[in-house]
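As the next step, I selected for study one protein, both as residues and as discrete backbone shape codes, as given directly below:
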Amino acid sequence: MKSVKKPASCQCFSQWLLIGLVGPVAEEIFSGPDQTWGGKTFRHGLGIFLSAASFSLFHMDVAMLAPLFVLGLILSLLRYWTGQLWAPIVFHVMNNFIVLIFE
């Protein structure tokens, strides 16, 4: 019995859905408590730093550690400035879609 291969368009859609949309939403929901806890326990600056550090370490890519840390800082600052979760989610989704387009 032969295995049935999925068409490339199906695989591409799955990749776009998981990496472009589901991943960023889950990551921002996961990193939110880091920033809130760090901001309440220490200071907001340290909370933002801890959230960015955990974001970059979570991706487990040593070569991309510094750029991911900067992205984490941007996302954490967006959450801090707006006080909402939607702003970093939208930015993160747009970032991932841009990466997928140029990959």
About this structure: The radius of gyration is 16 Å. The chain is about 80% helix and 0% strand. The chain has a mean pLDDT of 79.
